[in-house]
Amino acid sequence: MIVISDTAPIIFFGKINKLHLLKDLYSTIYLPIEVWEELIYPVTQHLPNIPEDIRLELDAKEEGWLIVKNPET
Q1: Label partner for 29 (CA 20 to 30 A): which of 1, 39, 46, 61?
Q2: pLDDT digit string (tens) for 41-66?
Q3: What is the C-alpha to C-alpha distance for residues 14 and 52, in angstroms, rounded to an integer?
Q4: Distance between CA 39 and CA 14 in Å, rounded?
Q5: For 3-17, what is each residue's pLDDT tens digit?
């Protein structure tokens, strides 16, 4: 099954420290580039108050189960 996500599920599962549940359910989740940029906006803009859940999202991408790639038509 191919899963493509928007920001809301990633943010909300991250905020309750349950992002791993998405990995357990789907094993791989694709995020369009624009979604990824929205998720990590506080980091790229060097904002002073970066939400703690962003670390989980960055770790998920580094682990390879959160894949940033635009869907192909």
Answers
A1: 46
A2: 988 888 888 888 999 999 999 999 99
A3: 9
A4: 11
A5: 999 999 999 999 999
Q: Residue 18 in 3-state DSSP?
A: coil
Those residues whose C-beta lies under 8 Å from the C-beta of residue 49, and which sit 6 or more positions away, are: 42
- Provide the 3-class DSSP secondary structure of residue 30: strand
CB 40 within 8 Å of CB 58: yes
Domain parsing of the chain, residue ranges: 7-68
Beta pairing partners, 32 = none
Read off the pTM: 0.85
Amino acid at 35: V
Q: Which sign does the torsion angle of CA 8, 10, 13, 16 carry?
A: negative
Place of tokens 């357990």: 24
Contact 17, 55 (CB under 8 A): no
